Amino acid sequence: MERQGFDIQRIALRGWQESLPDAEDRQEQEKTQYVLRTGLRGLLLPWLLGLLRSPLKMYAAICLAIRVSRQTDGRLLHHLVCVAEASRILRWTVRSRARHLHAHFGTNSAEIAMQMRVLGGPPFSFTVHGPEEFLAPLGLEDKVRRSAFVVAISSFGRSQLYLRTVAALWPKISRRSLRPGAEFSSGDTSTEVSDSRLVCVGRLCEAKGSYFSLMLSRNSNNAGVHIDLVLAGDGPCAQKSRKW
User: How far is CA 115 from the centre of its chain?
Assistant: First the structure.
């Protein structure tokens, strides 16, 4: 988007304190605003200001939080915190004169974007990656209904959104596969790689299907077909992966 001339404001709910080895990652970290860095105090003041300035909009946001809570997990406090987070981000987007807000994942981030719209923020859209959104869908139909558009990263993900929304909302949902940038294939490719080597780069967790790669490797080797499997990443399944 920036290469096409757009100004992009980066906002994340949480951050991390660890040092980053890659210079580009460090630059991104410096450009990003983090919602929860200042704790509860950083959320309370924007929420109170929003309540004083636009009580009707805040009332509508709280009613929406109650609605989503009843339809999904029943954790009302969690959804009220989303309203407070939306209040804080709204101040940032007003200052930057943001014209559109895009959220990655259809869980908390999409709910906050939806609440920002209720509070007077810009139109929003969101990307649904899955499978977390489908295992515990958090008000997906409300999010799709209030959004400008929704992106699913696979045909399967789009079909799951169709199952959870009325047909009138389907034109809002499109499929866009995630692809690496041009720089991904512009490096040195002269190194010879074995045809039997498979490389999986990503977080080691159930959602990424890490165990399927391990099962494929083990079953293939048991059948006499050698596969050199390389898992590049870390995560909650790292210890179990090493035991395989």
Answer: 16
